[in-house]
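Exercise: predict the fold of this chain.
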Amino acid sequence: PSATPRDITLFLDNGNNGVSNLAVARMTVVPVNDSPLMEDVSLAEVIEDTQDPAGARISTTVTIGFLDVDQNAVLSGIAVTANPALASEGVWEYSVDRTVWVSIGTVSPTASLLLSRNTWIRFKPASNFDAVPAPLSIRGIDETYLGAFSTRTVRTRFDVTQAVANGPFSLSDTLLDTRVLPVNDAPVAQVGPRSITVDEDSLLTFNIDSTWFTDVDDPNSLLLSVVQSNGQDLPAWLTLNALTGVLSGTPTNDNVGDLNLVIRSSDPAGLSAEIPLFLTVFNTNDTPTGVVLVGNNVTENSSNVFVGTLFGSDPDSTDTVSFSISDSRFQIRGNQLFVAPGQAINFEQTPFINLNVRVTDSGSPALFFDQNIRLNVIDVNEFAPALRPTTIRIPENLPAASAAGTLLAPDGDSAQRVRYRFVGTPPTMFTINPETGLVSLKTDAVLNFETTDSFQFFVEAFDSGAPQLATTASVNVMIEDVNEYDPVITTESISLSESQPPDVVFATIQATDLDVRQTLVYSLVAPESRFTINSLTGGLSLVRGGLFDYEQSTTTTLTVRATDPAGRFAEQIVTVNIVDANDPPTAATIPVTSVLANVTGVDLGLITISDQDAGQAYTIQVLDDRFMVLNGRLLLAPGKYVSDSDPANLVIPIIVKVLGPNGLSYPLTINISRISNPKPWQNPTNPLNVDGIGGVDPLDVLDLVNAINSNRQGVLPSPRPSSTLNESYYDVDGDGSLNPLDVLAVVNFLNGGSNALPPGGEGEGAALRSPSDLSVVSGDKDEQLDASSLWLAAFNQLEEERQGTRRRR
């Protein structure tokens, strides 16, 4: 109960209206302290390598997990019962003023450290530690604790194993934890500057040891690079394999000298450490690298003439060079090249000369380089270009500016430059490249075989000699017809009757081709098993009938291909519109599916025709002459009926004709069950119950008497008209007529003669007696009684019987 006082009212009651006075008892509930409960709590996260974390006050941090059922209970402090944090993780500390922090140190349940709610607590991580340290185990202390707490200099201890259920200490430990978030540390170089040397033209291979750099975060993620000390990239001859740490390359003469580099190791965050690397390339004697001849033309048939001046290249600038040749047709005089005396060069035999010149330097040892120098022999113009009449064949519709063909005009003077130009009237469709003889279409030219199949013009080929020589010849351009157009299928949609017979063309696919005299071949694109197509005419027909039903789908598609003799083709998806056809009706039904035997004129209801084609109108002819159709309803014809000798289930054939143009007739059947009715004027369940209401009573006699009065002949029609089915069952004795014997049978039953009641009977009754029992009522069975006297006698006898029954009771 709560601590709220409450009153209890009492009184005595002896159970006989004797009630005593009231007495009131005041009950006061004395509160008892309940031990608090604690849930796990967490300090704010600490950044790695933080040496002075801010910490948090216990009153704001631990209170979150403090639970106490006592009203107005508050957390006054905590007892730290375990401190499993390792030195490699860091240290848990507390402070009463946030100025001086004291390590929590070693604690245990029997010697827990007590800290007040105003004390600050934090975790100071060890260097490079970034994880979740071992948490403190703590217990909550509520406000009923009146003892002391730890200060900066005094550590107050308490044995929490002695805590009781109504004491100030929670009875179980909870956790106080935090998380140290990692920060990125820069890599550190473990070695000092490095230096290497290499000779020019020698392979340098320098291994950078992976242990030269360390990273406390992830040493495997460091990226190695080498750059020049000025920040520029390595020279082209020097490369670094960052994966293997191998710096390699072969320096050339241009690289001789000192190169200051920096080895750099970077972490993924971009922090890096560097080691200076000093590289020296020593010079060596280099082989000459080339020979240049200034003035390398030799005139055909000349002798003892100056050709040109030789110049040698050597990487070593202090070296001098000399030249030599092995071709006896030439001489070197100093650094000048001459055709030797008595030597003549023939252009037609040697249009150019490959002269091997050796250049040797003055180094030690002396090095040489052989250079092949091409000497051009200058031709003397002796022959005209040999241009011949040319025929060029090109296809029609060649794109504008396309090349048609190249004219060839070989010149006996092979060094001569042959050029080309039109002579006479220039062609309207073509241009000629004066340098190459390439004949091309003009940018606006259109070649059409069907319009013009050939062109002729004249071209002159002339050389560059002096004097200039030329030749003129005709050029005939023959235009060749090509298959240039794909067929075009113009048919996009066709119609198909759902009653279309197979193997009869119902539509023709139309296609055109701009290429004249083309014969197109039609085909269907597989898979297609419903249609066939005439390959020459494009006529479509069905493979078999009954493939399409308008009521199921009004459209379908097929893909048609038209192919020309060159194999060019077009495909068209053709929409096939299914045209509705008159579907035959499928069934005929009526609402009344059973008929009484021996009854005529029965209306079995409106005939319903099931037909996929909505909105159809019909005429119906019934083929069984016992039935007729009137205004769409099925009736038993006048005087016709179903006999008890007919099958129990009748199948009535009908002919349904669809009204409208080309209306067709269809045979259907209507199924009817026969209900046995051998005596149609007799109640089949209780013949004595004439009116069919309730049981057998004088009203049945009265019903018969009235009927006899209105039908003295007693003739009951057979078959029974359906219009009389709501009238009484007059034929009690089943002889097929209405007469006093039917009345007598009911009266005898009412007079009693048996203790058995027929179905639906009332009062005492007897079994149906024979007609001879009429004497019981009339006194003379031969006397002809009229209906009124018969009814009166029957009624009087019945009344006497009832009065006698009452007297006996």
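Check your answer against the key: The chain has five helices and 60 strands.
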